Amino acid sequence: MELLIVRHAIAVERGDAAFANDDERPLTPDGIHKFRAAARGLRDLGVKLDRILTSPLVRARQTAEILRDAVASEIDLDFSKHLAPGGDYAALLSAVGTLHADRVAVVGHEPHLSGFLSYCLVGGDARGSFLLKKGAAALVLFDGRPDAGAGTLEWLIQPGALRGVGQK
C-alpha cells in the first residue's frame, strides 16, 4: 500500500476575528494558488490515488479537494475525526486499512501528521523529527496492509520543491 501524507496548505492565521471557530479557518488565496502548483507537482511525480481521507476542518478539506482535482478527479473525499488535531494514530491507521485501497492520501494538520508519520515508520509513541511545512507531502510504503512501525519512507517533499516539479 502507498500512503501519501499531506499537510494542509496555508490558511488564515489562528486568532483571526473573522473565524472565531478554529475549525472554520479556510485556506488563503495564496495558499490555494501555491497548493494547486504543489498538487500539479505531485501529479507530475506520478502520484495516483484510489482514496483521499481528510480532516473535517475546512482548511484540510479544501486542500484535499485541490489534491483530488489534480490527481484523482473521479473520487470522493472521505472524512476522519482522527485526522483532526489530537486524533488517534492507531484508529487513523486502522481506518486507512479498512478503505481496501492500494493508494490512499490523508490530509491533516501539524504537529499531528509528523507524529502519525513517525507512528507509521517506528510505531508506539515514537516522535520523529519530521518537518512538514504547509502543503508538504510524504509517501510511506507498506508491504500489504498498513501497520504501526511497518512503513518505509519513500520520500518527503516540501511545498516549494513540489511546486518546482515539472517546471522548466
Could you please describe the fold and organization of this structure?
The chain contains 5 helices and 6 strands. The chain has 168 residues and is of the alpha/beta class. The chain has one domain: Phosphoglycerate mutase-like (Rossmann fold). α1 (29-44) runs parallel beside α2. The longest helix has 16 residues, at 29-44. The mean pLDDT is 94.
Brief descriptors of the model:
six-stranded mixed sheet; 18% strand; Rossmann fold; alpha/beta; 168 residues; 6 strands
What's a quick, concise take on this entry?
The chain is of the alpha/beta class and 168 residues long.
At CATH level 3, the topology is Rossmann fold
Classify the helix fraction into a percent range: 25-40%
Which consecutive residue ranges, at least 5 long each, have pLDDT under 50? Answer: none
User: CATH top level?
Assistant: Alpha Beta
Major sheet attributes: 6 strands, mixed
Cα-to-Cα separation, first versus last residue: 32 Å
Number of helices: 5
Please state the structural category.
alpha/beta
How many β-strand stretches?
6
CATH architecture: 3-Layer(aba) Sandwich
Gyration radius over CA: 15 Å
- Assign the CATH superfamily: Phosphoglycerate mutase-like
For the biggest β-sheet, the strand order reads 3-2-4-1-5-6
- Tell me the domain tally: 1
